[in-house]
Amino acid sequence: MLKKFRYTVSNKGLSYKQRQFYEENGYVIIKNNFSHTLLDEFSEYFHEVCNGRIGTSSRIIKDPLLKKLGVKAEEAIFKLQDFHDDDFLFRYATYSPLVDIVESIIGPNIMAVNSMLINKPQDLYPDQSRYPVHQDLHYFPFRPVNSIVASWTAMEPIRKENGCLFIYPGTHSREQLYEHDYPMGSRTPLFHGVTDVPTEETKIDVMLDKGDTVFFHPLLLHASGPNLSEVSLLQSYIMVISH
Question: Which Enzyme Commission number(s) are listed (predicted)?
């Protein structure tokens, strides 16, 4: 007898086993999901925007403390926000291997509601590039929750030393949105985090190669560590809802 699924809707882009994994863990990793050529084009576009050579309809978000430190423009830019409003970068949101998996999780009639091309510079002050434990649903008023999914694509190899994601598998199934606030003692005003992370939960590192994409439920507890390498790191994120 086939299992009744709660958090996925079809086999359009996911196998039965991949759906089972997402149901139980709240995330699934698709290896080599994105064209490296396309990611290289996005990366080059980001650098052109950072250096003022081209404009973009995306919003440029800068780290205020890095800006005060006088670092070069590219390192002070934290992200390009709402890139789905940018014709060049919107190709990420319409990339068919990504769309097929999104529709397998939340169904058709989808709409991008948040997108970010994220730059993670090396740490120049404590906690600068660390993202505290949080749930994406904290930032958005959209419902129903199971009609939402996030995708996060590595635009270059991501390991623990340069600030990979870490997640708490299965925490989506608690179906609880935890209280969030600025982390105690944090020096960056950019991030909120869960005020009381459940201590009994197990976390795992999500290390990805270029072109890999992780899809995850908006209630899944997750975070990312600091970038302790000597180079910046580019990642692409988009949240999608079915309506």
Answer: 1.14.11.18
